[in-house]
Amino acid sequence: MYVTLHGTPRADERPAGTPVFPGGNALDERDAAQDRRRRRIPLAVLGLGAVSLLTDISSESVAAVLPLYITAVLGLGPLAYGFIDGVQQGISALVRMFGGWWADSTRRPKWVAFTGYAASAASRFGLLGVSGFGGVTSMVGVDRLGKGLRTGPRDSLIAGASHPADLGRNFGVHRAMDTTGALIGPLLALAVLALFPIGLDGYHGVFVLSAAVAVIGLAVLALLVPDRRPTVSSAPGASVAGVTPPSRSHVRAPRPQWRDLAQPRLRRLVLAAGLLGVVTIGDGFVYLALADRGALATHLFPLLFVGTNTAYLALAIPFGRLADRFGRARVFLGGHVLLLAVYVVTAARLSGTAWIVVVLLLLGAFYASTDGVLAALASRMVPAASRASGISAAQTVVALTRFGASVGFGLVWQLSSRSAALWTVATALAAALPLAIWLLRRPVGGRPDSWTAVTA
Q: Where do the H-state alpha helices sit in 196-263?
């Protein structure tokens, strides 16, 4: 089956062997022009990618020094770090659904996202004026609340600007730009720490740099990102394979409905993502485990973040295309198999720089397989009017479960050992994967779209 426009097959969707007459016709030329426009990366995706690039320079420069700042400067233990890391992973869940619903209800996703980015920028300035466990935790909390508020609206803007068949690619482009910032941030932190003695001056220098870059990101969002608002086509007729024929007439999107979030496919995705989130610990724990081997000097600790982000940057777009072509659920689950390999290699205490590189490559590949792919999956499982809410629902569950995973892992590490904690989470992940596969592969309405179809 192929999509038709006004009863005429598009030129690139005719069955093989269909003759094409020299010179074509007006419909062929129009369809070819539409295809060329579709293949371009939308301006909204590039603009939001630039904002995320700057914001990640800001956030990752802080994240790259935070584990050492908490444990070496503040003198706190694994349980305290586990709680703060859990805040990083999970507190955004408190407002993530609100952010998605706010964006859908007001049809102003850009400005809801702007509010979230502004909160994160304010937290960078706050880090300069606080000290101790409570102060750092509160600023990390403000930052994560901002992230929770902005993520659903931002991903809704990306999905709304994208052709359904290009969702994985466009989310991959955004995540690649985002990860470029995540790559630059730790390098800048490394440079600042090299200029100052290891101590408060160096860490405060990182915080100042982070705040300045966050403000630039806010300006780019306000001035350069298009203010797209959801619309639905008023053209009659059902869509084929999730692709709605374009129409020149549009109407405002209907208001979101809570029942949209009860879609069976979305429920299964949320259950599977939550199940896997329970056994996904923060990267900082993996990096601390690698650093404890003694093969990495303290001032080089930010390079671990650089390694992961380099792999993520290189693989985000290819894995997005792979998900579009072979099934987003398959790629999403395959990413968690790579995460299992990370835990096993780290727990096995395999020595040498080569094994550290292997862990970082696997961790970057995990994020390339799951981050944007989860948003692409969720965006196709709810009506357009509730797109931000649907994406936020899946991300909320992941954030909440990862909060519990980080706190639990920190407790197990403190009460036993690093190796025992890693083997525990590896075993739990291995047990969770078959159930997650069953949840995502089970067909709904006779067809397991998320498993096989490129439009799911």
A: 200-224
